[in-house]
TrEMBL record:
The lineage of its organism: Bacteria, Pseudomonadati, Pseudomonadota, Gammaproteobacteria, Alteromonadales. InterPro entries: Fe_traffick_prot_YggX, Fe_traffick_prot_YggX_sf. NCBIfam families: PRK05408.1. Keywords: Iron. It comes from Idiomarina aquatica. It holds the Pfam family Iron_traffic. GO terms for cellular component: cytosol. This is Probable Fe(2+)-trafficking protein. The keyword Zinc does not apply.
Length: 91
């Protein structure tokens, strides 16, 4: 049986993640308060950010930047804007 969480991103009950996908306290917070659907949305944004900004996941500063964007997106419901990217529906 899948677990449900009150997803802070969706602002509703939704299917929770199967296991903690991110380390530490932040990972625990994500596991307990973010749904599979919201995490999938973040994964898409993360991929675009990494590609657009040419982030190096071996670089501490780039990882910190990505983590800040993740927290803003998932918990503060801030829209992540990617330079030069236009969502399909607004083209």
């Amino acid at each position: 049986m899948s677990r449900t969480v009150f997803c802070e991103y969706l602002q509703q009950q939704a299917e929770g993640l199967d296991f903690q996908l991110y380390p530490g306290e932040l990972g625990e917070r994500i596991y307990n308060h973010i749904s599979k659907q919201a995490w999938a949305e973040w994964q898409k944004k993360q991929t675009m950010l990494i590609n657009e900004k040419h982030l190096n996941m071996m670089a501490e500063a780039d990882r910190q930047y990505l983590e800040q964007q993740m927290v803003a997106f998932l918990f503060e419901r801030k829209e992540i804007t990617i330079d030069g990217y236009t969502p399909p529906e607004s083209q």
